[in-house]
Design goal:
Oligomer: single chain
Strand content: 15-25%
CATH class of the largest domain: Alpha Beta
Largest sheet: 6 strands, antiparallel
Structural class: alpha+beta
CATH architecture of the largest domain: 2-Layer Sandwich
Number of helices: 11
Shape: elongated
Order of helices and strands: HHEEHEHEEEHHEHHEEHEEHHEE
Radius of gyration: 40 Å
Number of strands: 13
CATH topology of the largest domain: Heat Shock Protein 90
């Protein structure tokens, strides 16, 4: 802006010089005319000089004004724009410094360029302890790869929104969590910087942690009486010395089913709390895919037979894969997909088990010809306690936690889950995990 203003002023000066030169040339032209042209008297000569000089002044003044008026207007506009920009910068600086939301300006390599007062309070450090330091030395995540992913996106100038991180503070007894968002801009010095916004969610996180801890404790405490109920019910049902009459045996069987549902519910709540508390980590072991899937299917074989479902399984040679993963977590995901397929597929339907192996990934898919999921509700699929409207109508029992648990388990395995579904057509759920061949 200053460069443009200087150019305009320089152009005004040049216009002045050219107009002055024109005036001088005009003056000499008047003098030459007076010398060449004979006048009758001295008074006529004076009258001519006065009129000629007056016209020359008026003409040069008009020409100068005509040339410089747009330039002067442009200079005035530039001055007004400079004032507006300076006011905007001052306003931005005040908002940036005094905002209750923590802000930091960071370079693509993560180096902190500046920070506001709220950021200083959040990190519990002096400003000079943050400036020129790497922002990732103050942030951590329960997922080891999360920081690396965000660091890479910062390096490549990709915006972020609402990424959860824990703040590394100087006080070991104090914990803080934030939602991180990142936007990019180019400053007046043509530097590419990121504006990093941190929303403090410590209070909400503490409430969630307390809730998860309560659910975990309650689930553990419930396991003991549930085990006792199951043991006593089995004793009633299978004690050969005191066999139950058929009617009472039927009631005991119904009681056992209720105990199983209650046990499954408690297990789901316990798994959710473990994921949210970060207690579940992968324990890699060697897994034989064929034996692994045979175990998963055999557990549900009686239900599959009862509903007369057709289960299509790949040939054994396609399942001859030995790899390293956490069998318990992968089993949790696969069992959930299979149980859902069985539950929501009508009698006589088909379930297809698919396996896809690429260079470094393994994908397991369970597709069914079941009731499917309404398109408008699919965005809620992996949230806690969600069950599709058609599922609630046709099958009343269910916690709505299975897919949430499957997604979290896949994340622990450094993988992900995906799906396709159409109401009345069926669904296909896939878990994709890194493949480490033995």
């Amino acid at each position: 802006m200053n460069t443009d203003r200087e150019q305009l002023l320089h152009e005004i000066e040049r216009s002045y010089d050219r107009t002055l030169l024109l005036g001088v040339v005009g003056f000499f032209a008047v003098v030459m005319f007076a010398i060449i042209f004979p006048f009758d008297s001295e008074s006529t000569l004076y009258w001519f000089f006065g009129l000629a000089i007056t016209l020359l002044l008026i003409t040069t003044s008009f020409i100068y004004r005509l040339r410089t008026e747009p330039l002067r207007t442009a200079v005035m506009a530039a001055d007004m724009a400079e004032v507006a920009i300076r006011s905007s910068r001052d306003l931005f600086s005040q908002v940036y410094k005094n905002s209750p939301v923590p802000y930091l300006l960071v370079h693509p390599d993560g180096t902190v360029d500046s920070c506001n007062t709220a950021a200083v309070r959040l990190f519990r450090r002096h400003e000079d302890q943050l400036i020129q330091q790497n922002i990732f030395s103050f942030l951590t995540s329960a997922r080891a790869a999360h920081v690396d992913i965000v660091r890479e996106r910062l390096t490549h100038g990709i915006a972020l929104s609402n990424e959860e991180f824990e703040v590394v503070t100087t006080d070991a007894d104090t914990r803080a969590w934030v939602l991180l968002s990142l936007f990019f801009f180019t400053d007046v010095r043509q530097r590419r910087l990121g504006l990093l916004t941190l929303v403090d969610i410590t209070k909400q996180k503490e409430i969630d942690v307390a809730k998860s801890e309560f659910v975990s404790l309650a689930s553990h405490q419930l396991r003991t009486p549930i085990a006792g109920m199951r043991w006593n019910t089995e004793l009633l049902m299978y004690d050969s010395n005191y066999p139950l009459p058929p009617e009472q045996l039927h009631k005991a069987a119904r009681l056992m089913k209720s105990i199983d549902r209650l046990s499954s519910l408690v297990d789901d709540f316990l798994n959710v709390s473990r994921f949210e508390l970060g207690d579940l980590v992968a324990n890699p072991e060697v897994v034989d895919l064929r034996l692994f899937l045979e175990d998963i299917v055999s557990e549900q074989q009686s239900v599959i037979a009862h509903k007369q479902l057709v289960l299509e399984i790949p040939p054994p040679e396609q399942l001859a894969i030995r790899f390293v993963t956490d069998a318990k977590l992968l089993g949790m995901i696969t069992t959930n997909f299979l149980v859902n397929a069985i539950k929501y597929t009508p009698t006589g339907g088909t379930i297809r088990l698919g396996v896809r192996r690429d260079t470094d990934i393994l994908a397991i898919t369970l597709a069914d010809t079941g009731i499917g999921i309404p398109v408008a509700e699919q965005r809620y699929l992996f949230t806690k306690m969600f069950r599709a409207s058609n599922a609630q109508t046709q099958i009343t029992d269910g916690t709505g936690l299975g897919l949430y648990i499957a997604k979290r388990a896949a994340q622990v395995l450094r993988g992900h889950v995906s799906y396709t579904s159409g109401e009345g057509v069926g669904s296909a759920f896939t878990v994709t995990i890194p493949l480490e061949i033995v």
